[in-house]
Structure formats: C-alpha cells, structure tokens
Amino acid sequence: MSEDRKVVVVSGAAHGLGEAFAKADRERVRRAVSNGHSIKSSDDLGCVTVAGDVGEPEVASRIAVEVVLERFGQANALINDESMWRPGLIAEIPEDLYWRVMAPNLDGAFFGAQVAVPAMQRLPRTHATRRWGNAS
C-alpha cells in the first residue's frame, strides 16, 4: 500500500510528542486521526482531530467507528501517546487525583488498542506502539 493511503491514529496529539507525530503524518501526506483531551476538533481532507479522553470507552469507540472505519475504512498504525502526570509525594496524592491520572495512562492504552486493533488486523502490515513519557 502506498504511503499516501495509510491511516495513522495518534492519541495524545494535543501536546508534546503526540502532537509532533500527528504533524509529521500530515506532512508526509498520510491520513491521520488525532485525539487529545484538550485538542480542538476539526475535519479536513488529510487529518481528522477528535477531542476527548481516549481513556473513556465512548471516546475510543467514536474514534474507531465513526472516524477511522467510516471515513477511512482502515487503520495502519496506532501511536498511543496519551499520558498525564501530576507530581507530588505518594502520601499526599488524593485518591481522586490518582484515578484521574491513571485513566488516560492505563485505560487510554487499553481502550485505544481495543478499538483500533480490529481495524488493523484486516491488513497485512500494521504497527502499534504505546509511549508513556512520564515513566521515569
């Protein structure tokens, strides 16, 4: 399949490396579906952005079904870059903050992959990666 027909799904595309990955895919004339909790939703010929937390199953499903499958019909690559961290001492982090941080970090990886993989399995060569920039 030619490079210009490939579809790359990037979560965490509002900031940092996720944003850079999505921008690079647009510049290489690939079709990109970008997602981030603080990204502005938009729709153009080569790139669709979907606002929302991919850690929420409804957002991940909307990206996969409404955008990836209905618009492009396939997904060749998944770059799951959504992550969040709030620094602090473990003893001082309240439970509600813990769960707000863990949702995009763990649930986002799980739900993002769960909905993207079926679209990817139909193709001979696909790739998925999970990057967590805060794992130090």
Features:
136 residues; alpha/beta; Rossmann fold; 6-stranded mixed sheet; 3 helices; 40% helix
The description of the largest β-sheet is: 6 strands, mixed
Counting structural domains, the number is 1
Distance between the termini: 37 Å
CATH homology-level superfamily: NAD(P)-binding Rossmann-like Domain
Overall spatial form: globular
What's the number of helices? 3
Q: What's the arrangement of strands in the largest beta sheet?
A: 3-4-2-1-5-6
Helix percent reads 40-55%
Rounded mean pLDDT score: 78
Please mark out the parts with pLDDT under 50 across 5 or more consecutive residues, or reply none: none
- Total strands: the figure is 6
Strand content: 15-25%
> Which CATH architecture is right?
3-Layer(aba) Sandwich
| Structural class assignment | alpha/beta
CATH class: Alpha Beta
Radius of gyration: 15 Å
Could you give the order of the helices and strands?
Answer: EHEEEHEHE
Q: Provide the CATH topology.
A: Rossmann fold
